[in-house]
Design goal:
By secondary structure, the chain is mainly α. The protein contains 6 helices and 2 strands; from the N terminus they run H-H-H-H-H-H-E-E. The protein has one domain. The chain is globular.
Length: 174
């Protein structure tokens, strides 16, 4: 895992300035690169999540203590995908986005559900991120009806964790 993580980070750091994109960085003006650049970065962050997620999920790789570094990597990557998707939505709308961005949004939702459940639906950041992510996925359904299945998977994960979205906001239904 460490070798792949180092290779992914080295790849991102080696990108030339033109395709490099950090949404909502503190000191930079708002800019919207072409969709293919946004897809590239969404995929990078999805790969980070897919690399680290087995170490924070239930199953045969489950540790008694969740590796904090993997949790942080997944949370940070999911937040970055959310920021990119919201920027994409603002600049281009998601109704015509490719399936690739749908997949990365689905991957990030799996992390946002875990984080929202961990905070018991009471926190603001993770609940907002989950709500925004689910709304993005639902908007993508108009362009690609196949996205309805990942939406339903996320909604089932929310139900299992006793989380519910009503009127675009997330509530704890415990």
């Amino acid at each position: 895992m460490q070798q792949v993580n180092i290779a992914l980070q080295a790849w991102k750091q080696a990108l030339p300035a033109e395709p490099n994109y950090e949404p909502l960085s503190d000191n930079s003006p708002v800019r919207y690169p072409p969709p293919n650049i946004m897809y590239l970065h969404c995929m990078y962050y999805a790969l980070i999540i897919l690399l680290h997620r087995p170490f924070i999920s239930d199953g045969h790789l489950r540790f008694t203590v969740v590796p904090e570094q993997s949790w942080k990597q997944c949370t940070s990557a999911a937040r970055s995908i959310t920021n990119i998707a919201l920027a994409y939505q603002t600049a281009y709308t998601l109704t015509s986005a490719s399936y690739l961005i749908s997949y990365t949004i689905y991957v990030r939702c799996t992390i946002h559900v875990r984080n929202a459940a961990a905070e018991g639906g009471r926190g603001k950041e993770h609940t907002f991120l989950l709500s925004a992510s689910l709304q993005c996925l639902e908007e993508l359904c108009s362009a690609n009806p196949g996205v309805a299945k990942p939406v339903n998977i996320i909604k089932r994960l929310m139900a299992v964790n006793k989380l519910n979205i009503t009127a675009g906001k997330l509530f704890d239904i415990r």
